[in-house]
Specification:
alpha+beta, OB fold (Dihydrolipoamide Acetyltransferase, E2P), BirA Bifunctional Protein, domain 2, eight-stranded mixed sheet, five-stranded mixed beta barrel, 25% strand
Length: 492
């Protein structure tokens, strides 16, 4: 810390000296006309640059410098990449070169010059003039990328983005992925909408909400856990195809797969079923992967994954039988299934329902083993309070979850549009909440009223954007794909 403090003092003294010399260390009148990528695109394939008469201006941060008395090389980084600059004392002038000598790694500068190649053939900018635009007071870490304390990268993302090109590339890809999804949806006549982030009644998912308070209305509100019930109100209103890409908030744990604030896309299509959405999801994911990776076969955390269609489809029950060490007659008998669940380490009460028991076993023995894209269907009705019951078996619903790499990536179902059935399921959820289930759904009378006006036959889906980005950028943690993930308070 003492060394850092001394470096900080040295740079502050440089700032003071610049002010005293009449030089503003934070000007705002330099307008770069080019980026590093522009220079490479225009002159990267030009072997002989001697005859090129071009005036180029760039701006960026100094990442490295090498001085040779009356000349110097610096590596400049801008939003598009890096370019080498060559500065000669007798060309920019003695006074300007003396000022340049005070520049430090981390400073932001603007430069004008012309393209040339060094003796080693590296495309560079031969500088005619250079100016300090921002004096950096804190030094960049020399080996930031090699830090074992990754929390520092998440907490000081601004530094991570400066020194780690791989981190910046992840977020460039994230932006592209979201834009590709938007264009895909718009191309299929879906309308992008925005729904409230603060709800009087939290709904649309099974999760604990964050609670806030509106002072003027003296009303308790909840940060939304899902936009589902508002989006389906829009379908009632005649917007047959809608989608929203936005944040959800769930007062849950933090892990490599979970952040309390995360991004999802939810979309709803009238006159469609959950089976239609399986095909739709395959098309969407394959389109995005092909555009981002140039292939449908890729590696994620050392594991080969293929998006080649068609994707596997299994019921919850069949997935347990395939991946777990249990026979069908055991799974279909509540007492035998409960005994099996306890034998694999699950702590469950005797009164657990058959549907919840099935899901506990599935999550323990099957979910994490499904690496290739797999649609899991036939979820128990009792754990799917917003899903339409299957016409042939009312114990299950018309729903799927998409599992890739052992993670849930998407959740979809044919929507329950019977208002009487929906109200009964809400009441059952309220009973569960009264028993202490903090994640159970609340009663939403207005949503039931909306259904009473008539929700067309509809299918809807939620896709975890963060997890999809993790998959397509080979990122091990959700915090690698969220610019500012939630962290504990910093200990000074």
């Amino acid at each position: 810390m003492e060394e850092l403090s001394e470096l900080l003092l040295q740079r502050r003294r440089k700032v003071d000296a610049l002010w005293e010399a009449g030089i503003n260390p934070y000007p705002n009148d330099f307008k770069p006309q080019h980026t590093s990528a522009d220079i490479v695109a225009a002159y990267g394939d030009v072997e002989q640059l001697d005859a090129v008469d071009a005036k180029i201006s760039v701006a960026g941060r100094i990442l490295a410098r090498r001085s040779f008395g009356k000349a110097a090389f610096i590596q400049l980084q801008d939003r598009k990449g890096r370019i080498q600059l060559y500065i000669k004392k007798d060309e920019i002038g003695e006074e300007a070169f003396a000022t340049f000598d005070t520049f430090d790694i981390g400073d932001i500068v603007g430069a004008e010059g012309f393209p040339f190649r060094t003796k080693t053939g590296e495309l560079s900018l031969h500088v005619r003039s250079i100016r300090l635009l921002v004096k950096s007071l804190l030094p960049l870490p020399e080996k930031f990328h090699g830090l074992t304390d990754v929390e520092t990268r998440y907490r000081q993302r601004y530094v991570d983005l400066i020194v780690n090109p791989e981190a910046r590339e992840i977020f460039v890809k994230r932006s592209r992925i979201v834009n590709l999804i938007r264009s895909f949806m718009a191309g299929r006549d879906f309308l992008e909408v925005e729904t409230p982030m603060m709800h009087q009644i939290p709904g649309g998912a099974t999760a604990r909400p964050f609670i806030t308070h509106h002072n003027t209305l003296d009303m308790e509100l909840y940060l939304r856990i899902a936009p589902e019930l508002y989006l389906k109100r829009l379908v009632v209103g005649g917007m047959d195809r809608v989608f929203e890409i936005n944040r959800n908030f769930r007062n849950e744990g933090i892990s490599v797969r979970h952040n309390p604030e995360f991004t999802m896309m939810e979309f709803y299509q009238a006159y469609a079923t959950y089976e239609d959405l399986m095909d739709f999801t395959e098309e969407l994911f394959c389109h995005v992967a092909q555009e981002i990776l140039g292939t449908l076969d890729f590696t994620n955390q050392g594991i080969d994954i293929s998006f080649q269609r068609p994707w596997k489809r299994l019921t919850v029950r069949d997935a347990i039988l395939e991946y777990g060490d249990i026979e069908a007659k055991q799974l279909d008998d509540h007492d035998l299934a409960l005994s099996y669940a306890r034998s694999i380490g699950l702590t469950l009460p005797d009164e657990i329902s058959s549907g919840k028991l099935l899901m506990e076993i599935f999550e323990e023995v099957a979910e994490h083993k499904m690496i290739q894209p797999t649609f899991i269907t036939a979820y128990p009705t009792e754990v799917s309070p917003l899903s339409r019951k299957n016409d042939h078996n009312p114990e299950i619903v018309d729903r799927f979850e998409l599992i890739i790499g052992g993670r849930e990536i998407a959740n979809a179902f044919s929507e329950l549009n019977d208002p009487v059935d929906q109200k009964e399921r809400f009441l059952a959820q309220v009973a569960e909440k009264d028993k202490g289930d903090e994640e159970a759904h609340y009663m939403d009378e207005d949503y039931v009223r909306a259904l009473e006006y008539g929700l067309p036959p509809t299918a809807g889906e939620g896709i975890g954007i963060d997890r999809l980005v993790m998959l397509l950028t080979d990122s091990p943690s959700i915090r690698d794909v969220i610019l500012f993930p939630q962290l504990r308070k910093e200990i000074k």
